[in-house]
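Review form for a predicted model. The reviewer records the input and the model, then writes brief findings.
Reviewer: anonymous (R2)
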Amino acid sequence: MRPSAAWTALVFLLVRGASRGCTVKKLGSGPGRFANATLVRLSEFLSAGYKKGVRPVKDWRTSTLVAIDLMVYSILNVDEKNQVLTTYVWYRQAWTDEFLVWNPEDFDEVKQVSIPTANVWVPDILINEFVDVGKSPDIPYVYVTHGGLVRNYKPIQVVTACTLNIYNFPFDVQKCSLTFQSWLHTIDDINITLMRSPEELREDKSVFMNQGEWELLHILSDYKIFSVDNDDYYAEMKFHVVIRRRPLFYTVNLLLPSIFLMVMDIVGFYLPPDSGERVSFKITLLLGYSVFLIIVSDTLPATAIGTPLIGVYFVVCMALLVISLTETVLIVRLVHKQDLQPPVPQWVKYVVLERAPVLFCIHKKHSLCPTLSSQGTDVEHYKDNNYGTAQCPLHHTCETGRRLSHHDREGRLLGLGPPVPSRDPAPPVMDSILREVTAIRHFLEKRDRCREVAKEWLQVGYVLDVLLFRVYLVAVVAYSITLGTLWSVWQVA
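Model under review:
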């Protein structure tokens, strides 16, 4: 029995030595097989018996505390129509894995090692606002320290839903939220905290690409515990990304051309009201503004729930141009000279020609129409000349007849003169001349009356033109000041 027992012990020792030699060979401790066998041994040590599907705590009552951090790298797209924000962020999270612990002295003072993410437990922390999967690079490794601290750092392209308010466009400030929480585990299993202080997180813009349309103002954080059914409570960390649009591009390409067209419309009021050029000028401005609106329509953001204030501004400017054109047509109609134009009513004369110039400091009406005044002077001179010329032959004939009749009476009294002939009727030529002169006089008087009526309507049109221009100017200036003040406040805020 003793020899057989001895042989059995010998065989057992040989098999154990052979298996140990195979294990050493498998671990790669032989020279030349692996340059850094320490990491291989450490990896084998950490993965031996590790269960990645189990939360890494020795006491199940202990909650796993996950520290997270967020740094915004770039704002890729802001889709106002679909209410979607696309950002590129650097996301960091860290937690303690109680099963990934080793003594650095046993592994050549190695204090941290990178291992595949697929081999360790990872918390199920997601972003609630996710609406699409972005093109994020895959980072297959995590860092693990000898104390069990696991650090998972990765860049993420985040496509999230965001409530975008475009009323203040292009001076708008948007606030979008990124909510991180465990989708399944309650606060008893997984709790969330910040990796840095809220003040450091708020002011950190070290990695942000600050050359695009949007400017990062700050990142706010908010920790909250909530419950869905008043039974299980969950922890969430909400990051509020506050961004502001840079308005220079839209100011130069949208606001300034509109302002220039409105200024030209105001300048057009200095054209004479009795000329047709003002109407053509106003119509040209209106057509130009219509083309401008067609060009910029694709630039304005569009949503189904609201319209930006700049869109309302363009519509109001269009309405002002239409009102200006209507006023111009009305004034041209008033001052247009017609032979059958009715006289100005008395109440219009009193209100427009007497009261309005005094109240609104408008020039006196006699200085409004120098052309018609000069024409009236010429007419009076022409009438005087024609009337004098027409009456001269008759006056000379009558005077000659009176002189001849006086001499004849004296001759007859002295008995020296010839016998008195019978008086002949006036010759037909003189009657014709009298009728022509009377017709000319009536024509000139009628023309003078028509010119006086046209002159009064021109004065009414001038006064109304000045009044409407001042009202239009006040409306444009008040509207511009209001919008400018609002946009300035939004820009500073």
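Findings: Residues 186 and 342 are 90 Å apart (CA to CA).
Further findings: The two ends are 98 Å apart (CA to CA).
Recommendation: see findings above.
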